[in-house]
Write a structure and sequence with these properties.
By secondary structure, the protein is mainly alpha-helical. The chain has one domain. Helices cover about 40% and strands about 0% of the residues. It starts with about 25 loop residues before the first helix and ends in a 29-residue tail after the last helix.
Length: about 110
């Protein structure tokens, strides 16, 4: 696979790294998991255009990342990747952090 430039519009989904410093080949594990876990329809469409579905499935199955909110995990696994009949250990994928992060009021420890 030839390296492709990561579109700037993916920065919000790939928030922990500047997209200008990402390589679509060497950073594909991070990119695939982030987009599956946090991307919207446009980002997922880009993902499926950039990588083959078989490559995405292989990374999802062989290199789990504990990065997915529960609903997003099941959407990626069952709908996007057609793995509904595949039994996976969800503890390797689902993060315990979910929902909106709320800032605490000062002094409320």
């Amino acid at each position: 696979m030839k390296s492709q430039k990561i579109p700037q519009r993916l920065q919000a989904t790939l928030w922990s790294v500047d997209v200008n410093h990402l390589d679509s080949v060497t950073d594909k594990h991070y990119i695939i998991h982030q987009v599956l876990g946090y991307g919207g329809f446009d980002e997922i469409k880009w993902l499926l255009h950039t990588y083959t579905k078989e490559e995405i499935k292989k990374i999802f199955l062989e290199s789990p990342m504990k990065n997915y909110p529960k609903d997003n995990y099941y959407f990626a696994k069952n709908i996007i990747l057609d793995l509904e009949d595949t039994n996976l250990n969800e503890n390797k994928y689902i993060t315990s952090i979910s929902g909106h992060v709320v800032q605490r009021a000062t002094g409320s420890f």
